[in-house]
Amino acid sequence: MQKVTGELLINKALELLDNGTVNRVLGWKRGEFAYDMTPAVFADAEELKNNFVFNDFCGANFSKYLIAETRKEGKVLVFLKPCDSYSFNQLLTEHRFDREKVYAVGIPCEGMVDISKVKKAAGDGILDIVCENDGLVVKTLYDTDKVIDCKEVLAERCVSCKSRKCVAYDELLGENGDVLDSSRFDEVEKLEKMTEDERYAFWQNELSRCIRCNACRDVCPACTCEKCVFDNPDSGVENKAVSDSFEEKMFHIIRAFHVAGRCTDCGECSRVCPQHIPLHLLNRKFIKDINEFYGDYQAGAEVGSRAPLVNYTVDDLEPSEAVQKGDADNA
Amino acid sequence: MQVKGEYKPLIVAFCCNWCSYAGADLAGNNRLNYPDNVKIIKVPCSCRVNPMFVLRAFQRGADGVILCGCHPGDCHYTSGNYYTRRRMALLFSMLNYLGIEKERTRVEWVSAAEGAKFAATMNEFTEAVAALGENKRLEDLRCKK
Amino acid sequence: MRKCSIQALDTVFETIAEAAVLYLPVDGDNGASYKKWEKGTVMSNALNTVRSPKDFFFPQSENLMEFRTSGKTIEVIDKREEKEDFVVFGVRACDVKSFDILDRVFLNEPCDSYYADRREHGTIVSMACTRPVETCFCQTFGIDASNPAGDLSCWKTETDVYFQANTEKGEKLLAAIAGVTEESDDTAVKAQQEKTREIMKKLPLADLTTEGFGAGKTAELFNAPEWKELSQSCLGCGTCTFVCPTCQCYDIKDFKTGKGVIRFRCWDSCMYSDFTKMAHGNPRLSQLERFRQRFMHKLVYYPENNDGVYSCVGCGRCLAKCPISMNIVKVMRTIGGKADE
To the nearest whole number, what is the mean pLDDT of chain A? Predict the structure, then answer.
């Protein structure tokens, strides 16, 4: 259950629209069901009052939308959850949008719910979901109403939340949280402890499900190339389909590598994957390696920091040592 | 000498123009032996090697990929090989994380004066890759037939 | 109509698998998917597989031919392989209907021989739905989830499985499993259908209609101002098109193997920036145009060319999978609703 209500956000948005600070608002728009919010731009007060929502299903990270939004006339209001604010800073570091054209309101987040977990817990045919205290009352077609503890159905990225601290905002609603001692590298460690063969089997199984829809890339706030190499017919690697199992490995290695050191671990890639491939495990491997090899680094924690891959020290460790270190099975 | 029919791994060696390629040249001038299945690709600097180059080498049939550049501190462009070092450390660690044998990838610093080191490195690397056998985990079947 | 007990279903599978390769939906950690039947395989009761069964006839990627050069000659190698007969078991009513939609594209002159070949070798055994979910809207397109088409229709009750052949292929299959099944009346099936139809009426999307869409609506809808708002948050990924059972656009590309060239066909997505790219460039430069193309194709262009048949079957996959939850239902509600005013 979120600490800030949709109503509070609507009032804040109305106030800022009214006093002319902004001329439009980026927000979550009510859908057909209780859980299918769509990111939308609201310019009209009535529309805002009727259709703006904020609840446990508003996972979408708005930072990337700012690249397109800030190219338009006037200032836009954006609501940033803690993880979104890291992406916001990272994009600013890379000069991807005009800070002057954004009014950012930081909002606390208690973690977002993964709807596929709700479906598993409550059964098929979800007709309505009402948030009550720390639970969700789920009404379905075939079963009696069920009360589910929010904590049981949190998205993976929220279970291992790295920070509840908004790191970028013009104004903060509610109280700011802290950087957390997160368990987000546990899964990576588990994989590192496996043998090469086991790891290969694990990833072969996961990546073979990939349908190359590119959702992980297109949603990623760090993937902001104007033209991706995988969309460029002249690159020799452009491909829309997995024609060979090599293609899926190539795509996912390059995707993760290109955001290494810039990925804030917002977890959008894993959220949107229609095949539930744990893509965050690739990103987190890079983050973990970077932390261990070159010192702790959190992308987006502040504006203007130098990313580890565009930096060096004369006594960095050698690649052979790095591979030994990263492979706990043989260490 | 390789016996006909015996498995010969294909090795792709990316060598920087200023040190390692000259090192390979020196190895040749000094008549030092290294396997003919090492295919050298000259690059302006080791940091020209994009992770995609490494993957595509595997896709096109390489069994092992080695990068050679100037010794850290000696880069013709001052700092290129420092970036290479970080990039390849992360890339190779990731490849191993995906279950690709770590012996298939290597970075070695070879100066223009180290013809002997070049030959020795190639001999040793080829042997290590040969011990692993064919690259199956990063192969593209379309390129095999 | 014939029937067998639930327990005998494994024997039915075994019998079918003797003569043809049998595929059926199997549960996995991340949803159901079609798998080849082997002894001990348990059929999933899931409503939908994550990927639609269109792969069986129109695979995501397929090699068409290969070119090899030696000197000044080019050898063209046909990559087609001898197909074996196969049976796809447990296809839902919506997905069965999607094959009709694909047929109209691929079997019309000029007939796509790669597709036709697969179609010829495949037999579809459908499975009636009993537990539709909130994302289902097949009834909008006149599909009866409780009475699926296909070569052989199938109903599963608590105790028995009922079979009804609809085509020659279905008759043949039914004859093959005659030893395991017995003649039966349709009382139980009728009762189940009645029940399912009642549930269908209660679905949240039961009131969705195609009003405002269809043949001849291009001029009216193409420049509708609503497209801008609808498409503004579209990421331009291909999820909706790749999980869709009726999306049929493809691209033909060449892959250089180092020893020759493989010409292959792969699914394309109108959401992608290089969709229908031609020598002069790309005809749809903005995401708005690409987004509009998808829905105009399904709801206007396709019916215009195909006797009013819509190119959507209401399976609900795109509703469940879109990263930003923008989908055909929201488009129909926004633009179709406007037409009523």
Answer: 94
